[in-house]
Amino acid sequence: MIRAFIFDVDGTLVDTRDIHTNAWKKALAEFGIELSAEAIQEQLGRRAVDIIQDFIPEDRTELRADVLEAKWRAFRDAYTDIQVFPKTKELFAYLHNKGLELALATSAKREDAEFYVELLSVGQYLKAVVAAEDTEYSKPHPEIFLKAAALLGVAPEEAVVVGDSAHDIEAAVKAGMTPIGVLTGGNTASILRGAGAERVYDDIESLYEHIKEIL
Questions:
Q1: What is the domain-level CATH number for residue 28?
Q2: Nearest to 122 by CA among 130, 114, 133
Q3: Residues 184 and 115 in one domain
């Protein structure tokens, strides 16, 4: 029986794919490092502190902290450009009214997670928010979703995970949860299904319209 929904945020509930990409490109360029948008987007969904280890080579590790600071500065400068995907609040209200426990599980830092809760206007429906500082490992490690389930007081098999990236789906599979994909993060349905998604929807609005398929 499904008792809880755990949501990724970036690319799933809010449209931040290009904003994160541009922030990374700008920050890296400040230090003479050029990466394609595609290379950056392949890593989105993981914690920034882990992504930076792939972006900055071992012989330049002293740059990592400065690049991270520049990345977060560039990202937060673009806060006003972040848009919530349609029907997000309606979906949370519906699930809450059905008696389901709800959580956000985001690779974003706590500061950004708090901003997202306010932007989404779903704080009254949430029982837990797990952010980057709460985890030791990045997705596709299942830690973040297992912590969310524990905070919600549900067993892994009682939880649905909704995410936009292969990292989200793989982590949900490893956690023993029901993985649901949305296409708003730029991944194809075949990529998400290949990672283990049981169902894939175009966006949150489509998920909202077909939510009874899951419940």
A1: 1.10.150.240
A2: 114
A3: yes
Per-residue confidence at 5, pLDDT binned at 50, 70, 90?
A: very high
- Compute φ and ψ for 182, nearest 5 degrees: -125, 150
Residue 175 tokens read as 């956690």
Model confidence, pTM:
0.91
Number of other residues whose CB lies within 10 A of the CB of residue 183: 17
Domain that holds residue 11: 4-15+82-213
| CB contact at 8 A, 67 and 31 | yes
Q: Is the pLDDT of residue 59 over 90?
A: no
Mean pLDDT, rounded, for 176-195: 97
Q: Are residues 93 and 125 in contact, defined by beta-carbon separation less than 8 angstroms?
A: yes
Answer yes or no: do 151 and 207 share one domain.
yes
Label the pairing between strands 14-15 and 83-84. antiparallel
d(CA 112, CA 139): 18
* Alpha helices per DSSP H over the chain: 17-29, 37-41, 48-55, 64-77, 88-97, 110-120, 143-152, 166-175, 189-195, 204-209
What are residue 160's DSSP bridge partners?
5, 178
